[in-house]
Design goal:
Layout lengths: L1 E14 L2 E5 L6 E7 L6 H13 L3 E2 L5 E3 L7 E6 L21 H16 L4 E3 L6 E16 H4 L1
Parallel strand pairs: 3-6, 6-7
Antiparallel strand pairs: 1-2, 1-3, 1-8, 4-5
Helix pairs in contact: 1-2
């Protein structure tokens, strides 16, 4: 699985003009763009969720990135994103052959979300919907995680 993790001071996702998910208002958190690839399984989702929750990128009292999302009372906004598996090496149109098929991908996103919800509030977008994601990237801090390279 792949994740683009963005430290945010606010974030929301809209479908058909309606907010369907947002970070806890007034609290920092992560906007997580999450994709599942061929060969990914529950272990990838579980380990990636733990890794995201464990990231220490929020400032402590000295301004150093030393605190995790739990420690700052933050939340996650998880948005499924199959395009994280787009292969742009040939031509100008990305190939998405490495993305997991939708039913299995939706199940892995749910495994990730369920694991994360054991520790912090988690909001989501709607799988396969046309979503509009808004965020204020704080820092900016943006990290790329890949379960095949991270663990």
């Amino acid at each position: 699985m792949r994740a683009v993790v963005q430290r945010a001071s606010s974030g929301s996702v809209r479908v058909d003009g309606q907010v369907v998910g947002e970070l806890v208002p007034g609290k920092p958190g992560f906007v997580v763009l999450l994709g599942a690839g061929r060969g990914d399984g529950d272990d990838d989702a579980l380990q990636l969720a733990d890794k995201v929750i464990g990231l220490r990128v929020f400032p402590d009292g000295d301004g150093k990135m030393n605190l995790g999302v739990e420690e700052v009372g933050g939340s996650l906004l998880v948005v499924s994103q199959f395009t994280l598996f787009g292969d742009c090496r040939k031509g100008r149109r990305p190939s998405f052959m490495d993305a997991l098929e939708p039913v299995a991908a939706a199940a892995l996103v749910e495994v990730f979300v369920a694991r994360a919800r054991l520790r912090v509030p988690v909001a989501t977008g709607i799988f396969q919907a046309d979503m509009k994601v808004e965020l204020v990237n704080d820092g900016p801090v943006t990290l790329l995680l890949d379960s095949r390279k991270t663990f």
